[in-house]
Design brief:
The chain has 13 helices and 6 strands. It has about 350 residues and is an alpha+beta fold. Strands 1, 2, 3, 4, 5 and 6 form a 6-stranded mixed β-sheet that branches. α8 crosses α11. The structure holds a DNA duplex (11 and 11 nucleotides).
Length: about 350
DNA sequence: AAACCGTGGGT
DNA sequence: TACCCAAGGTT
């Protein structure tokens, strides 16, 4: 009888699984659902290398979902600074509160799916990895592996339905969590987006994409739109060894994060060029920063003042600027201003 | 349902 | 350099 995809993949995983801080080794008991949840949210659209130091910091500072739920939201947002996609941090706080309130994580895919910040992928991943449920886990790695394995010629995103169906067909009843992690490891290390290592792949003998001759061209994706370049200004306002920081609105770009005052630049257009107060401004330089859907040229203006700017904000000590939790854009601006 | 939402690393 | 990409979710 021919070996199934899941047999081949699980055998490979038993020998080659990556050793990651949030993961149990093959055969060990399932890890703490809190650690699975936290890692899965951090890993959304984010590389393993980027997540590792944040995962270590969060689990040290907040060892349980109850501890995280009890933390001030500002502390969690500041600890997330630099990881990106800050709605994840806002939802992390909401989710921790909901889980602590109900006395633990839901143990089913459907129950998990109701929590803030958990979509189809993350709910399935936690159900399978932490609770051993047979859930169909489809992320970008699985899409790529499945598209190649079954030579799916339909372009993404239209192919998602067919890919999910194929993924369901190869997902085993037992070890669904290991199977999901094996698919993701395969996608991350062997069946990579560029230059797949087919000679090392446990599925090479059954891969229809390889049989067809050019697996690397799959999955087929639509061309990306060009990013506009926007111009804006940020203001470095000093008084008595402190800098004026504001908190951005809860929705939208860098929502909920501490920030420098700026002139209202956005994805849609340039800033107004208007400063938040009259002062003698010096140019501290230009920050070029690329977001997902636009690029920003941010000119940083610096001044010393003797009164508070209008509106809400706080004077933050310069020597503790690293602890302010500025997102990377404004951390770059601060570096310029302090240079 | 297409658009919005970060960042760092690889090529 | 410029572009692509990564364990997606929300609206």
């Amino acid at each position: 009888m021919a070996a199934t995809v899941s047999d081949l993949l699980l055998d490979w995983y038993d020998a080659h699984a990556r050793d990651l801080p949030w993961r149990a080794r093959p055969g060990e008991p399932a890890p703490d659902p809190y650690r699975v949840w936290l890692s899965e949210v951090m890993l959304q659209q984010t590389t393993v290398a980027a997540v590792k130091p944040y995962f270590a910091a969060f689990t040290t500072r907040w060892p349980s979902v109850e501890a995280l739920a009890a933390a001030p939201e500002a502390d969690v947002m500041a600890a997330w600074a630099g990881l990106g996609y800050y709605s994840r941090a806002r939802n992390l706080v909401k989710c921790a509160a909901a889980v602590a309130e109900r006395g633990g994580f839901p143990e089913t895919e459907a129950g998990l799916r109701e929590l803030p910040g958990l979509g189809a992928y993350t709910a399935a991943a936690i159900a399978a990895i932490a609770f051993g449920e047979r859930a169909v886990v489809v992320d970008a790695n699985v899409e790529r592996v499945v598209a190649r394995l079954f030579a799916v010629e339909e372009p993404l995103p239209a192919a998602r339905k067919a890919i999910r169906q194929r993924a369901d067909e190869v997902t085993p009843d037992d070890r669904a969590g290991d199977f999901a992690q094996a698919m993701m490891d395969l996608g991350a290390t062997i069946c990579t987006a560029r230059d797949p290592k087919c000679l090392l792949c446990p599925l090479s003998e059954v891969c229809e994409g390889r049989a067809a001759g050019d697996p690397a061209r799959l999955p087929i994706k639509a061309a990306k739109k060009p990013k506009p370049v926007r111009q804006g200004q940020a203001f470095w306002i000093e008084r008595e060894g402190a800098v004026w920081l504001v908190r951005r609105a809860g929705q939208g770009m860098l929502g909920g994060m501490r920030a420098l005052p700026d002139d209202g630049w956005s994805a849609r257009g340039n800033g107004t060029g208007e400063a938040p107060l009259d002062a003698s401004w010096d140019s501290a330089g230009l920050v070029r920063h690329s977001f997902t859907h636009f690029a920003l040229e941010l000119s940083v203006l610096s001044a010393s003042v003797e009164r508070d700017p209008d509106g809400a904000g706080e004077w933050w000590p310069l020597e503790r600027i690293e602890e302010a939790g500025l997102p990377t854009l404004f951390a770059k601006a601060a570096r310029l201003a302090l240079a």
